[in-house]
Every structure is written in structure tokens, then in C-alpha cells.
Design goal:
Blueprint: H1 2-11, H2 13-21, E1 23-27, H3 31-41, E2 47-51, H4 76-87, E3 92-96, H5 107-111, E4 115-118, H6 123-136, E5 140-146, E6 149-155, H7 177-181, H8 187-203, H9 219-234, H10 244-261, H11 278-281, H12 300-324, H13 336-353, H14 360-367, H15 375-393, E7 401-405, E8 414-418, E9 432-438, H16 446-454, E10 468-472, E11 475-478, E12 500-505, E13 514-520, E14 527-530, E15 558-559, E16 563-565, E17 570-573, E18 582-584, H17 587-591, E19 618-619
Parallel strand pairs: 1-2, 1-4, 2-3, 4-5, 9-13
Antiparallel strand pairs: 5-6, 6-7, 7-8, 8-19, 9-14, 10-11, 10-12, 12-13, 15-16, 16-17, 17-18
Length: 622
């Protein structure tokens, strides 16, 4: 009763009632997620579902306060929801340890919630949740932090811009292939080699050439790199045997280093590398590769033991994937096997080239482009998220804002600006989202679906014309010149519940494409389509002017590797591993070298920061 009374004084009895019956989905139970779950439980929300893929790690304990040392290796979402129910026994909290991008979490699953709150740490999952919320017509509160910076915004289909409305150029930091392959001089060179070359060549489904574009200057290097790649590919036959790790070690730390040493001119002005002896380093040392000290720089023999252990585990996983046709492995900083392999390999290469070695924890940050998380920033952002959620559930979305947590020599720490309208050219939210219900994906063919869409009544005509194309992700499934898949069942094409296909008119580019979210049937009909009543009528796009889409050469716009400085003196961050955030440039920051902040990555939308003079809606924190 006391809780209800206090909340009613803040929000009104009607709002308290809405919050107590709202079904809330929290995606992510990490730094922001822990604070968010606690805030929700103490703010009158009674039905909360949390989903997170990760386990609790020792490094989480300094800022994710719902976790304790005894929880290490347990599920983040399950431990977090257990903690908040002890804070407030009235809360009905449930949890899943799973990947939110799995197809089991389809449009029907998202539609059961009244609001979704994102506390994610990767771009792919953010994009997926954004799309699913648009398809399910569920409001989304997006968030993230980058050190002392943070951002919260609300996404509502047809009301606000979505996560994809602003372009996100991926300007990945690259290094000359000759440096990575032959003459590394810094730890990051060794980490890039271990992660993007050796790991990818051995365990990825489609290994590449470290994204290096061939030029006249690097043609010989790339040719040699491909020869090395073919040699590594031959080692795949030993994958799963006791000799696999030794063969890989001898190839990259003995044979390849010896070949480099034979190039005398290369080492005239450089320190030559040292060949590593596997038999000498592989001696028993009492080291436990299952539980390495993440914060210590290990002994060379321990790095070798960790290399052997992680290589054998990854080989077993890769072979299991081959048998189940699941493809290859992908590096994940939260996957111990992949992280330990990259850390051990990078440090062994550093040992060979006389480069400073790094701890597993340091390599995790460097390989994942991580900016250290600040608990206070997470707490501020989580609080703002709950306030935005309350406004959305109270049907007061017009009062919502995009809010930024900033840091610098200024009294104002939180800035807010009105929610932006949808980008009329957005490739995600300028779409007509419908639900395609299929009774049996093993019997229904792609041709059946196309015939069904063309045979709809005039009141439900998709108005795509006679010639259409069908795409799933980046896969072309059908167009007028490619009909090989028409007779194939949807299941054979991988089109099952949870997948989406895009139907685009080939006759008229002005017709808004249709996205069909595949879901299980609710009736005996073989096929049915739902959602017509919620599909908006889009205004025609304005004609592009002669300068639209042309990059500006204005001297007031200074573009650096990982951020944009506009004429107002505002720095627009383009995402770290966590999220986009905006701050103003203080005098101190403007004097720093650009590469000192180049760890901030590039995947979030560019948003113009609001300067002090532009907005009076600023909160000052004591």
C-alpha cells in the first residue's frame, strides 16, 4: 500500500495502475540492464521479462551491482531477475538466457509486451530489436553509454525516427597488411593478426583477407598472405586431433617467422623476431587453462598452454558446426574460447617480435573496441529510461525526449531535445509491415506465397504490381529473372517463423516495399496476412535536389576517423561497443590528439548535439 501511495503522488493513480499491468521486456542484463531492472521493480512495474545471452564474469562485479562473486559463470538475466524479486516481492519477473536474434523470438513474441527497453551492447542486436518492434508495433526505449557519455531515446513506429533513420557509416580502423603480416610493432597489430587473420582462417565460415583492398603497393603482400592462408587451410584436416594445436603453432610461430628472418633487408633497421619452440614452451607448468587470471600477463609457457587448450576447444566446436551445417565460428569478446585463443595467440606473437604483452582483460577491451563502463553513467541512463517508459505507457509520447548525458567543463550534465520525426528515406521504418501466417512451412512453397499475395482482394491488395522481387536479409529469393526457388518449400529456404522477407515492386520505385514477418498460423487457413489496418499511407518522397546526397566540403565540418566536429563546436560520437552518445567539446578535449579518442567506434547514427544556447531544457546535476 505504501509503495502504491508514494507512486501515486508522483504519477497519479491511473498511471500507477497502468504500470502495474504493463508487460515489460528488458533486453540485456549488463551494466545498464542491472540498474534498469532495479529501477523498474521499484517504480511500480510488476511484470518484467529479461533476456540476456551472457554469463556473469569477474570483471562485471565492479559496476553490475546485482551480481556477487558467488554468481560468476551463472546467467546474468536469471540472477538479475532473482535479485529484483527480493527487492520487491510483488514483481513477477521471468528470465531467459538466449540470443534475442533467434527466430523463436518472432513478431508474436514481441507483440505480447507493452514496451521494450534496450540495454544492449552490440549493433546487430540493436538493429534486430528495432526492426522487430516496428513489425510488432511495440514502442522501444533505446539506450547506451560510452564512458561518461550516455543517450536515451524513444522509438515509436510512424511517430519518431527509428534506430536506422540516420546513416551509420562503418569506418573500421584498418592497418597496412604488410605491418600486420610481417612487421608488427604494437600490441594492437598482434591482436588484429590473431583475431582477423589466424582465428578467421582456422575457424570462420568464410575467412577473408583482413578487409584489405589490393593495390599496386600491397599486391605482393596480399599474394603471400593468400599462400599462407592456403597453407593454414590444409591444417583443417588435422582439426580435432591431438596434433592440431602443435601444427598450427609450428606453422605460424616457427616456419613463418623463420621465413621472415630469411629476408635480411627487412631487419636492417628493425629488431628481428625470434622463432618460438613449441616443445620448450609446452612443458607442464601447473597452469590451469580453464581458469586463467584475466588481469595478469601470463608466463610464456602459460600462454602456450592457453593456446593449446583454446585451439582444441574451438576445433571441437567447429567440427560440431560442420556436422550440423551451422557455419563457422565468430569472434565474441564474451566467448571465453574465442577470447582466450586470440589473447594467447596475440601474446605469443608479441613474444616473438619483442612487443609488450597484455592481459586477457586488456585484450578483451582492445579487440572489442570497448570504452570502460562507468557505473554512474549507467545509473543515470537507466533512470532516464524508466521516466521515458512511464511517459510512453501513459500515452504521453509527445512529452518524451532524446536525452544525452554529457561530460566536460560545463554545469549542465543532461541535455534533451524533441524526438525527431522519421526519416522519409529510411530503409527500415519506411516499410509496410505485415504478418504472414503459415500453417506448414514444409509444405507451403515460395510460389504459393506469391500467388496468395497476388490473389488478395482489392481492399487488401499490396499494390506492388505484377513484377516483384523477394529478398530475405541479403539473399535474393526471387525476381522476374530468377525463379529457381518458386517450387521450394519455405522451410528449405530457411523461411520459418521469426524470419522476414521483403517484397519490392520492380515496376515502380515509388511504391513502398512490404515486409512480411513469418509467424505460426492461428487458424486452419494455409496462408493469411494480418496487419492491414495498421499500415500507414506514406506520402510521396520529394525529388532529390542536385546537391542532395553529395558530401559537404564545408571547412566548418571537420571529419575525423571516429567522430564528427560540426561548426557549433559539438562532438557527435558514432557509437562505441555500447551506444551512440553526444557531448560538447571542452577546451581540453579540443586540444587532444584525434587518435586519443579513436577507440570510439562508428556504428551509431550521427545526431547533431544541442548546444547550451540552443536549449533551455537542461537539467543540472548537483
Amino acid at each position: 500500500m505504501r509503495e502504491t501511495t508514494q507512486l501515486a503522488k508522483l504519477f497519479s493513480d491511473h498511471t500507477v495502475s497502468q504500470l502495474s499491468t504493463a508487460r515489460v521486456l528488458v533486453v540485456g542484463a549488463g551494466g545498464i540492464g542491472c540498474e534498469l531492472l532495479k529501477n523498474l521493480a521499484m517504480s511500480g512495474f510488476h511484470t518484467i521479462h529479461s533476456i540476456d545471452l551472457d554469463h556473469i564474469d569477474l570483471s562485471n562485479l565492479n559496476r553490475q551491482f546485482l551480481f556477487q562473486r558467488r554468481h560468476i559463470k551463472l546467467s546474468k538475466s536469471q540472477v538479475a531477475t532473482g535479485a529484483i524479486t527480493r527487492f520487491n516481492p510483488r514483481v513477477h519477473a521471468s528470465a531467459e538466457q538466449a540470443n534475442i536474434t533467434n527466430t523463436q523470438y518472432d513478431v508474436d513474441w514481441f507483440a505480447q509486451f507493452d514496451i521494450v527497453l534496450n540495454a544492449l551492447d552490440n549493433l546487430e542486436a540493436r538493429r534486430h530489436v528495432n526492426t522487430m518492434c516496428l513489425a510488432a508495433r511495440v514502442p522501444l526505449v533505446e539506450s547506451g553509454t560510452a564512458g561518461y557519455l550516455g543517450q536515451v531515446t524513444v522509438i515509436k513506429g510512424m511517430r519518431t525516427e527509428c534506430f536506422e533513420c540516420q546513416p551509420k557509416p562503418v569506418e573500421r580502423k584498418t592497418y597496412p597488411v604488410c605491418t600486420i603480416r610481417s612487421t608488427p610493432t604494437t600490441p594492437i597489430h598482434c591482436i588484429v593478426w590473431a583475431k582477423d587473420y589466424l582465428f578467421a582462417q582456422l575457424f570462420a565460415e568464410h575467412p577473408g583477407d583482413m578487409d584489405e583492398q589490393e593495390t599496386a603497393e600491397n599486391a605482393d603482400e596480399l599474394r603471400a598472405l593468400r599462400e599462407e592462408s592456403r597453407a593454414l587451410a590444409k591444417l583443417a584436416g588435422a582439426m580435432g586431433t591431438r596434433d592440431f594445436a602443435r601444427l598450427v603453432f609450428e606453422k605460424v610461430f616457427d616456419e613463418d617467422v623463420a621465413r621472415l628472418l630469411s629476408m635480411k633487408d627487412m631487419w636492417a633497421q628493425r629488431r628481428p623476431p625470434t622463432v618460438l619452440d613449441f616443445s620448450a614452451l609446452n612443458e607442464q607448468s601447473g597452469f590451469d587453462p580453464e581458469h586463467p587470471d584475466d588481469h595478469a600477463v601470463l608466463d610464456p609457457k602459460d600462454w602456450c598452454a592457453l593456446f593449446v587448450h583454446s585451439a582444441e576447444r574451438l576445433a571441437q566446436r567447429r567440427l560440431a558446426m560442420d556436422q550440423s551445417t551451422q557455419g563457422g565460428l565468430v569472434f565474441d569478446k564474451d566467448d571465453d574460447d574465442t577470447l582466450h585463443f586470440v589473447a594467447a595467440t596475440a601474446n605469443l606473437r608479441s613474444l616473438a617480435f619483442g612487443i609488450e604483452q597484455k592481459s586477457i582483460f586488456a585484450i578483451k577491451a582492445m579487440a572489442g573496441n570497448i570504452i570502460p563502463a562507468i557505473a554512474t553513467t549507467n545509473a543515470i541512463v537507466a533512470g532516464m529510461m524508466v521516466m521515458q517508459a512511464i511517459l510512453v505507457l501513459s500515452q504521453r509520447i509527445s512529452e518524451c525526449h532524446t536525452s544525452y548525458v554529457t561530460y566536460g567543463k560545463r554545469a549542465r550534465c543532461i541535455i534533451k531535445e524533441p524526438l525527431a520525426e522519421p526519416n522519409p528515406r529510411c530503409p527500415v521504418c519506411r516499410r509496410r509491415y505485415l504478418t504472414l501466417r503459415v500453417r506448414d512451412c514444409t509444405q507451403t512453397t515460395l510460389g504459393d506465397v506469391l500467388d496468395f499475395t497476388k490473389g488478395l482482394g482489392s481492399d487488401r491488395d499490396l499494390q506492388l504490381g505484377d513484377d516483384i522481387s523477394v529478398v530475405e536479409g541479403t539473399r535474393m529469393l526471387y525476381d522476374p529473372d530468377f525463379d529457381d526457388n518458386l517450387s521450394k518449400p519455405l522451410h528449405e529456404l530457411g523461411l520459418v517463423s521469426g524470419k522476414m522477407v521483403t517484397l519490392t515492386s520492380e515496376d515502380d520505385d515509388s511504391i513502398v516495399p512490404v515486409i512480411l514477418s513469418i509467424a505460426a498460423a492461428k487458424s486452419q487457413d494455409l496462408l493469411s496476412i494480418e496487419g492491414y489496418e495498421s499500415v500507414p499511407i506514406f506520402a510521396p518522397l520529394p525529388q532529390l535536389g542536385p546537391m542532395d546526397g553529395v558530401e559537404s566540403n564545408d571547412e566548418d565540418d571537420v571529419v575525423a576517423n571516429d567522430f564528427v566536429v560540426d561548426g557549433s563546436g559539438a562532438i557527435v560520437l558514432e557509437d562505441d561497443d555500447d551506444v551512440s552518445a553526444v557531448s560538447s567539446i571542452s577546451e581540453e578535449l579540443s586540444k587532444r590528439k584525434l587518435d586519443e579518442i579513436s577507440v570510439i567506434s562508428q556504428d551509431a547514427p550521427k545526431r547533431r548535439a544541442v548546444s547550451d544556447e540552443e536549449s533551455d531544457d537542461v537539467v543540472t546535476l548537483d
